[in-house]
Amino acid sequence: MHDIRTNKQRLWDSLMEMGEIGGTEKGGCCRLALTDLDKQGRDLFVRWCEAAGCTISVDKMGNIFARRAGQDDSLPPVVMGSHLDTQPTGGKFDGVYGVLAGLEVIRTLNDNGIETRAPIEASVWTNEEGSRFPPAMVSSGVFAGAFDLEYGLSRADLDGKTMGEELARIGYAGSAEVGGRPFKAFFEAHIEQGPILEAEDKRIGVVTDAQGQRWYEVTLTGQESHAGPTPMPTRRDALVGAARIVDMVNRIGMEHQPNACATVGLMQVFPNSRNVIPGQVFFTVDFRHPDAEVLARMDQALREGARRIVEDLRLEMDFEQIWHSPPVPFDRDCVASVRKATEALGLSHREMVSGAGHDACYISRVAPTSMIFVPCEDGISHNELERADADDLAAGCDVLLKAVLERAND
Ligand code: HGY
Ligand code: MN
Ligand code: MN
Ligand code: MN
After folding, report:
1. Quick one: which residues bind Zn(2+) 1 (predicted)?
2. Domains and CATH numbers, the chain
3. Any known ligand binding at 83?
4. pTM across the whole model
């Protein structure tokens, strides 16, 4: 099998150039889904892929596929990819690495004049983060049939703008149907976004599974009134209710260790005025666990606990689970391809479960799928301080190249 390597400097330079689009003072990146900055990033990726001889297709959810022809184009493609959208205080590597590692694989094959039997594609999945338009991974979810197209296009941000409107506005409302076409395999290279690889001094994470997630939206309603003359015992303070539920969410997470994750990340207080008792609070809950049954028990504890708190404080509650992505076992043959490539390259590695969700989670429903992790500094991600080492990024890209070559020629 070819002993070629990807180009470390070119990969790094492409990551840095892409990171300039939405680049922040602290060295991070803010390129929210379907903003003008997302459009700029998409346009740059398309230009790079066209320059590498790829043909571009965009589907109705704005997913981008850059295709490099194979010797037999009737075969389903081997696809690589991830996402270009970031968190508001995101980094330069989350998602972007998997997209540009795919491009680097294509560039390396071109440099070496290597043809593959099956075509290969580098892909970009719209709105993986779910930060601007919940839920996360919605476009790979539509591709995999977890959501219908209408649901996907109707996802709205806090200003009520929908994905369909924003796709049209930035010129990425493609014409290709979403999904319904086979992939021979799908590989997503990604930074680990956690501390394990760095702590164990391992170069590559051979990802076997991804943990399950449940996302909730909660609105508590009490009674706005004056912070001065309103006696404490008579108050119906929505923020006190939210505070008790936030503490309970954390306790549920701690009580389901190891592995449980529990986070309240978004909260809006109304009217949010220093001398008015909050009449309404909107907040989100993010639960995760690799075991579906434990995740269900956490769900139960949240529902019962929240009900008790709300009764105790005489509040009303609107409680909705807006998203459930069950734990994902990745395809054993794809995991083996990654492990084999890692061992052939003599790279230190360990098997692991992904703590974060990824487009690979949904694509694994419709294609043999697995992931390749590389370390990130102090395990920090979803933070402008997110950093990864050029050698590790190149090593992960070499693993991707080998795994893709194996599957495209078998
Ligand atoms: O939330 C996640 O795990 C991913 O970053 N969307
Ligand atoms: Mn990501
Ligand atoms: Mn992310
Ligand atoms: Mn091994």
Report:
1. 83, 94, 190
2. 8-211+327-408 (3.40.630.10), 212-325 (3.30.70.360)
3. yes
4. 0.92
